[in-house]
Amino acid sequence: MDEQFILRVPPSVAERIESLLNESASSSDDKSLDLTFTEDGRTGKFVIGNDEFPAYLLDLPGIVESYKTYDDNVLIKTADVGQMIMVKEEGDSIPDEVEYRHGLTPPMRDARRRRFRREPDLNPELVRRVEKDLQNIMAGGTAENIDILPFVMLSFVLI
Fold first, then answer.
1. Which residues contact 78 (CB under 8 A, 6 or more apart)?
2. pTM for this model (two decimals)
C-alpha cells in the first residue's frame, strides 16, 4: 500500500508546484519544497522556494478511496484517505474546526449537515436512569417506577 494524502493549495502555489515537477530542477526558481508540522500535528508550514504558507491538517466528512491503474482498464484500490492538508495564503482565515465540512467536490458541500444522521438529543439523567434499571433487571431485580399490570387471558368461543 502506498502512503497517500490530499494536498489542497491556492492556485498560485499549484502553478509553482506544477512548474517544479514539469521542468528540470536547475531551471526552476523554486528549488525546494518542504512541509513541516508543529507538535500538535494539526498546524504547520508549507515552504516552496523562499515563500512560507500556513498549512493545516483537516479531517474530511467521509472516506475517499484512491485507485491506481496500470492498463487504463482495471482499477486497483490503493488507499482510504480521511484527511487533507490545506495550504492557505498568508492573510487567509484560519480554520476553526479540525473537520473540513465541505468535502472535496461540490456535491459534498456542507455534507455533514445535509447527508449524515444527526446525533440524537439525549437527556443525561434519562440515560443514567435507564442504565441503572437495566443493571437491576440483569441482577434479577425489577426496574424502579414501573407498574406491572396483571395479565388476564380471555378466550372467546364463536358458535
1. 1, 2, 4, 66, 67, 68
2. 0.64
Summarised one tens digit per residue, pLDDT across range 114-137 is 777 777 788 888 889 889 989 988
- H helices of the chain, in order, are 11-22, 111-115, 124-138
Residue 103 pairs in a beta bridge with none
Phi, psi for residue 111 in degrees, rounded to 5 = -65, -35
On the 0-12 / 13-18 / 19+ scale of CB atoms within 10 A, 55 is: buried
Q: Spell 29-41 as b/e; 16+ CB within 10 A means b.
A: ebeeeeeeeeeee
Q: Measured at the alpha carbon of residue 109, what is the angle toward residues 13 and 90, in degrees to the nearest 5? A: 30
C-alpha cell, 40: 500538535
C-alpha cell at 34: 518542504
Residue 133: phi, psi to the nearest 5? Answer: -65, -40
- Residue 24 CB partners (closer than 8 Å, separation 6+): none
SS3 14: helix
**pLDDT band at residue 55, thresholds of 50, 70 and 90?**
very high
